Amino acid sequence: MINKLQNSDILTAIKTIDTEIGALDELKNLLDDNLTKALDIIQQAKGKVILTGMGKSGHIAKKIAASLASTGTPSFFMHPAEASHGDLGMVTNDDVIIAISNSGESKELLDILNYSKRFGIKLISITKNPDSSLGRAGNIILKLPNSIEACPLGLAPTSSTTATLVLGDILTVGLIERNGFSASQFNQRHPGGKLGSILQKVKDVMHKNDEMPLLNDDADINAIILEMTSKRLGCVGFIDDSGKLVGMFTDGDLRRCINSDLKRVTAKDIMTKNPITVGGELFLTEAIKIMNEKKITNIFVVDDSSRPIGTIHIHDLLTKGAA
Fold it and tell me: Can you tell me the distance from the alpha carbon of 232 to that of 230, in angstroms, rounded to the nearest whole number?
């Protein structure tokens, strides 16, 4: 009995996926010059992009607004009911409204549509029905596929909301590419969570100034061990008379040469010359990749003149949640 239920559930899941993929295939075929015109309107807007919609369309509108805002296009969601009770005052002539309704006849949107007409505010309509109230009111119509819902009753928004969500992603990605939005800019808007961690740069987490284990390249073994022990990073970097990083010595190197006569050696005799280094602008994810590939746990950060400005340890990356 359980196996039959499992099989039935999987068949239903596959049917749902196939139905929604069908809606996306239809959406692909509906793309036309209106998409370019809509992107033009949004990109050229001096104000904000305001997303609105009722019910499930409203939930999708919130996600689209969040995606746009996090990728360089100032946006927010406005609830249609709240709009009718004062929130329309937040809309300016420099803004763009994107209104979503599968049928195009959500009565809750009427006040917003009338307001946009009255004050000449650009309106992008997302609907499957160009002849609807929403379709006729829009400066640009982005048409949704007139496909069946995955819901077996044909009632619960499923395929239609998926298509709307993807259309929002199309707008978001299009604007990212048009505006040349960078990973660094993305990081500024995502300081928290895992995204914030992996988008940090090496300069944000490195040990610098007096925290750096650093000596001249003529230092003796006693000075090296003392510096390595006091800075507790498991390594020491060595600089020449010009201040450039010329070598590195780790606690692993120390263990490997423990049976040697170390009394008379200097850093020049035992250091790894021309060690692997990175720049401060490197993302932590890229630093992690280098450290994993080279099987090292420490790496020095240098400026354009090869002078050390910091050092990082793999534990720093683990602490930040980036590794």
Answer: 6
pTM of the model: 0.66
Give the SS3 label for residue 277.
Answer: strand
How many domains does one find in the chain? 2
What separation in angstroms does the CA of 78 have from each of 50, 87, 127, 297? 7, 7, 18, 49
Assess if residue 174 is contained within a domain.
yes
Asked whether residue 196 is assigned to any structural domain, the reply reads: no
**What digits encode the pLDDT tens for the residues 173-215?**
999 988 887 766 666 665 555 555 666 788 888 899 999 999 9
Distance CA 88, CA 84 (A): 7
Residue 192 maps to a domain: no
Cβ-contact 95, 121 below 8 angstroms: yes
| Same domain flag for 20 and 156 | yes
**Long-range CB contacts for residues 291-298, cutoff 8 Å, separation at least 24:** 291/317, 297/234, 297/250, 298/233, 298/234, 298/235, 298/248, 298/250
Domain match, 172 and 223 both = no
**Residue 169 and residue 22 share a domain:** yes
Structure confidence at residue 65 as a pLDDT band (50, 70, 90): very high
Reduced to 3 states, what is the DSSP secondary structure of residue 99? Answer: strand
The domain of 313 spans: 202-319
DSSP 87: G
